[in-house]
Amino acid sequence: MAEAHQAVAFQFTVGPDGIDLQLSHEALRQVYLSGLHSWKKKFIRFKNGILNGVYPGSAPGFMLVLAGVLSYSCSVFQPLCLCFCSRYMSVQKQMLVGGVMVGTGLWIAIIFSMRTVLKGLLSWHGWMFAPHGKMTWQIRLWLILVNIFSGMQTPMLYSFQNSLPHLPVPSVKDTMRRYLESVQPLLSDEEHRRMQSLALDFEKNLGPKLQWYLKLKSWWASNYVSDWWEEYIYLRGRGPIMVNSNYYVMDFLYAFPTHLQAARAGNIIHAIMLYRRKLDRAQIKPLMLQNTIPMCSSQYERMFNTSRIPGIETDTVQHMSDSRHIVVHHRGRYFKVWMFYDGRLLLPREIEQQMERILADTSEPQPGEETLAALTAGDRVPWACARNAYLRHGKNKKSLDTVEKAAFFVTLDDTEQRPESLDHYAKSLLHGKCYDRWFDKSINLIVFKNGTMGLNAEHSWADAPIVGHLWEQVLSMDPVKLGYTADGHCRGEPHPNLPGPQRLQWNIPPECQTMIANSLSVAVALANDVDSHIIPFSDFGKGLIKKYKISPDAFIQLALQLAHYRDKGKFCLTYEASMTRLYREGRTETVRSCTMESCAFVRAMITQNQEEKLCLLTQAAKKHQQMYRLAMTGQGTDRHLFCLYVVSKYLGQDSPFLQEVLSEPWRLSTSQTPLQQGELFDLVNHPEYVTTGGGFGPVADDGYGVAYVIVGEKLINFHISSKCSSPETDSHRFGNNIRQAMLDMLNLFELDKKTLK
């Protein structure tokens, strides 16, 4: 094979005339180009590290300060140099060096002053609580100051990291008050009095001691929540991450760029690698609220070259600084595909060429290879044991390292997925056959036989908006910027000398195959229990909701409350994820969407008159917005309670209050997947390029998981999941209740408008 010949840079033979060296110039050329690429990347990272380190300072600013200092009076700075260079420099040079030293010091002082002021400005969040559409003079002045102290140059992805404030620790008293308020609609009067007693005891006795440790951590660490959240919520979980933790993202809802599986993979893989290059160079624009207020970008760091490594007690996240290959799975075989040749990234048609070679390969899987990835889908302890005992030796170690150190994982799925069967499509992305995705990889790209595709993402390293940002850019590039030929192939020509993919080799003993089979049985049972339902709700969207001066997110959350009450006849503890990326290394906070106001509105929909319903809807929406803003600004309840619980465990002091709070099940778990880069999609002229969004598995055995994405002005996609084994849930029934709740709530405004006329 061509790659086997080019893998050896030189050969030699010993004869009567001496040693005869046979150099492979092509191999040496590839070695040279590979090293050149590596050094370029190191230089770019070094340069970006300096630029980020001095932001909001810049080279022009430095030259301006230096010129101002030197032009003022060089003689002032001569004494600075006398002590160490008066014997080696003239007076003029001494004055010049002194001026440079003072100018540099002044520039550094200005940078740190600007950064300190900016951090103070970003710690103020009064702008978020102002009435919608109203801009006070205080907010205008604040925005002007933020713009001034953010610097004049275009920021890179990590430019604002050192200027972001630390997540504040709420007071124990405020957290107790908010918690008791959140559970009031779910408890009887007697149960609520009991919880009040437990909360008061905690607030007076154990709470202040635990709070002291949290305060100490908040002063020392970048974020007092995020590292514990990653470790205890994700990495220490010993159950399967498939369905329970990993989530999925879908393709376009209506567009089908090509029917060729290899071609679609070629364009998408190339687009992902282009995004990775921009990420390596920090050329991705940081997400800015109102184009002014920066959000934390730390979660982007581990998007690629990352794998979750199983352990007996806890998993770890392994991140490589670089990876030049991907691993492709097809019909139970694993292939290593290099992404670079001739010192450059492979073009889409060249990647398609590699995918075609894999699809044409008729070799059979080696014993145990076909279902190997089921280990990543089952319980974590058996996977850790199998990995340590059987996969860390000989050829298995080399192949496993290739998988775990790949940029990302690709599955060329041998099934077809179509939009008329979105429910089946969602289940395939969520779990597939339970052995054809490597669930430990940060990103799994799945390309189906008919060219449809999607992602499956591991959750510990980052939250869904980070993957969503990548996916939006990839989808926007695929049909328009990259495009396809008339017969569905990628544009361009195949490479005549491109080395083919390398088949990974495994030697899996019978004992390991037994462990694989056990994990597969666990995973299949879990997958078969998932009931998924996707609703593209197109009756109306955020455009109409905003006309009635209601937050679209609040409107949807109230619809979910109404739908759940109609579905089960009761209220439940509700989880809505909000972000805390206004703070350094912020991740998420919980908005407890079931409130006294939302329950009053739902009851009114059953019994009250039209005017009463509309009034209560407005009040409930305002309450929800208030709670969402509190969560975003570090004044939520659940992350604080979680960290207090972690400290109590470290101290070996049990708290009946915390134990009860953290054992409460979230029977309705919800999350909005925001469209962050709407400017990438021209939905007016190309409405077919709407995204379907993504979803996740159910959190509680008897509950629902609901993800939703607001696309454009007229479409909201709901992704609903539950467990088939629960007699209380039915995803299709709940979907019908959501649709009806949305229509009934809109009808309140429509009827009110007719009454006013």
TrEMBL record:
It holds the Pfam family Carn_acyltransf. It is found in: Mitochondrion outer membrane. Keywords: Acyltransferase, Fatty acid metabolism, Lipid metabolism, Membrane, Mitochondrion, Transferase, Transmembrane, Transmembrane helix, Transport. GO terms for cellular component: mitochondrial outer membrane. Residues 167-740 form the Choline/carnitine acyltransferase domain. It is a multi-pass membrane protein. It catalyses: (R)-carnitine + hexadecanoyl-CoA = O-hexadecanoyl-(R)-carnitine + CoA. The chain crosses the membrane at residues 61-84, 96-117. Its EC number is 2.3.1.21. Pathway: Lipid metabolism; fatty acid beta-oxidation. Residues 1-47 form the Carnitine O-palmitoyltransferase N-terminal domain. The active site is at H459 (proton acceptor). The keyword Signal does not apply. It is an enzyme of class 2 (transferase). PROSITE patterns: ACYLTRANSF_C_1, ACYLTRANSF_C_2. SUPFAM superfamilies: CoA-dependent acyltransferases (SSF52777). Belongs to the carnitine/choline acetyltransferase family. This is carnitine O-palmitoyltransferase.
